Amino acid sequence: MAEVIDGKSVAEDVVRMVKALTAELVAKGKAKPGLAVVIVGEDPASQVYVASKSRTAKECGFHSLQHTLPAETSQEALLKLIAELNADPEINGILVQLPLPAHVDAGKIIQAIAPQKDVDGFHFINVGKLGTGELDTAFVPCTPAGSMLLIERVRGKDLSGLNAVVVGRSNIVGKPMANLLLAANCTVTIAHSRTKDLPALARTADILVAAVGRPEMIRGDWVRPGATVIDVGINRIPAPEKGEGKSRLVGDVAYAEAAKAAGAITPVPGGVGPMTIAMLMANTLASAYLAAG
Ligand code: GUN
């Protein structure tokens, strides 16, 4: 049976480290790192994520600011808020929770965030730095960055020559994940809904990353024996209408089947999920260090 990769515990290590480094920064007389989280509308999943981000920021000793705006907030009002946060010296990181309501152009909002405060790593400048291997000064999107840390925990830092298959081509996870694996000298394939014979391709993977948002799509017989399986999916399966059953969270990987073949696998929940928030804290701390000079 596969090693279960304990993302919760690795995330706690990261948060502990961020907390210690924050205390060091403050002891030197520098300002504490500031994180502003902006949420528009009432998407329940987003509300849970945002509350958790703000709570962890406080736990790290950050100046933590949350702007909760009604769903009908205009694009202009949002752009004005971002301009204010860009100019606010107490704020080192700005995160606008996605998805945004349909009447707002999410691309415009993301590109309005100052690249040096873009702790999500979604601004073109940071995307471009990641794509060209300028990893020292890029903000890397939190979920792929956290996934990389988990992969390195299992396989060590040298991933050179390993076959990596990333299932999913989103800007938030699939593409940056592929770029990180490429920068680590893996042979990388990005698979998506039009890929032919995905099971056969998946079976070539030493590292298999699932980020498609389709519950339990990746089956046990798609997993190469000994592979490292990183499940980014978080899918809520509704409770059955009759009977005692509760709703439950599952990943994009059929866990019980895949765990029989994999060398190591992340569970859902408790795998990649906690890493996303931990890496957001790490990015905000890095931004504060850069601002403090
Ligand atoms: N919505 C889902 N994941 C993310 C994320 O990593 N950042 C932001 N801003 N919104 C998200």
From TrEMBL:
Record-listed E.C. numbers: 1.5.1.5, 3.5.4.9
Domain of life from the UniProt record: Bacteria
Alphabetically ordered keywords of this record: Hydrolase, Oxidoreductase
Protein name per Swiss-Prot or TrEMBL: Bifunctional methylenetetrahydrofolate dehydrogenase/methenyltetrahydrofolate cyclohydrolase FolD
Organism: Mesorhizobium australicum
